[in-house]
Design a protein that fits this description.
Length: 268
């Protein structure tokens, strides 16, 4: 990094990382101008970055460069074959989408929008049906009897181990799918065997929600640990201890805002 940008830019980047990280953490106190400013900067930079990626990866090669090559082909007298390419039609439809910016011509955008929505639905219908339905059904077609066994298998159920497919894992998956579907089956009254299976399905649903929530919490804690580790790694003498000074700067700005500009009705 030093060889590419120089020591000044490296130090500036480290200070910005520390300041932005601690400014976002200031939201733990309450919503404040420092956090809002950093949030707006982040959203603006992200929007500009994604626009640049869209322009460089889609608009420039498929539109700007294509039109430039079209003018070159026109100058060389080779325009006949160039007009047959589909990109000209896509360019026209893309420009028609921008007609929404002109109120009197906004109706022109309905044609390309309808084409985009219809094409997307048609192209993804089979993919979504296969991934969300057929593959899910096929995934539950598991054998409930297996000859797998070994020293790591449970003594009361041969082949049952958490680290590999086994009859125990297959049985839990099949029972969970059947009981959860039974719980959400509203065409008949859940009583007797159906009621018991629905109750088991509730347990599977609650366990799944709990595991999902736990994984989300662990992911957020992992992000927090990553940011804290970054602050500790860059808080070095060669950078001037940016974490300490940025923390004092953020706290000082919040104190000034609280004492000078904070209004009592914001407590509500």
């Amino acid at each position: 990094m030093t060889g590419t940008y120089g020591p000044f830019m490296e130090t500036l980047g480290v200070w910005l990382v520390c300041f932005f990280t601690l400014a976002v953490f200031s939201f733990l106190y309450r919503d404040n101008p420092i956090y809002k400013a950093v949030e707006h900067i982040y959203v603006g930079v992200a929007a500009g970055y994604y626009f640049y990626q869209a322009f460089r990866g889609t608009i420039y090669p498929n539109f700007v460069l294509h039109i430039h090559r079209g003018f070159q082909a026109m100058a060389e007298g080779k325009m006949d074959g160039y007009l047959a390419q589909w990109r000209w039609g896509a360019a026209v439809l893309g420009l028609l989408l921008l007609s929404r910016l002109i109120p009197k011509l906004g109706w022109l955008s309905r044609w390309p929008m309808a084409l985009v929505v219809g094409s997307f639905a048609a192209l993804n219908l089979t993919g979504f049906a296969k991934a969300n339905f057929i593959d899910q059904v096929a995934g539950t077609m598991l054998p409930l009897a297996s000859a797998m066994s070994g020293p790591e298998a449970l003594p009361f159920w041969p082949g049952a181990k958490a680290a590999a497919p086994s009859i125990l894992n297959n049985a839990v998956l099949v029972v969970g799918v059947v009981t959860v579907l039974t719980y959400f089956f509203f065409s008949t009254r859940r009583a007797g065997l159906l009621g018991a299976m629905g109750n088991v399905g509730i347990w599977f649903v609650m366990i799944t929600f709990g595991a999902t929530y736990g994984s989300i919490v662990l992911a957020r804690i992992s992000l927090l640990i990553g940011r804290a580790t970054t602050l500790l790694d860059v808080n070095l003498p060669k950078y001037g201890y940016p974490a300490y000074f940025c923390a004092l700067l953020v706290v000082g700005c919040i104190l000034v805002w609280r004492l000078k500009f904070f209004k009592g009705e914001q407590e509500r």
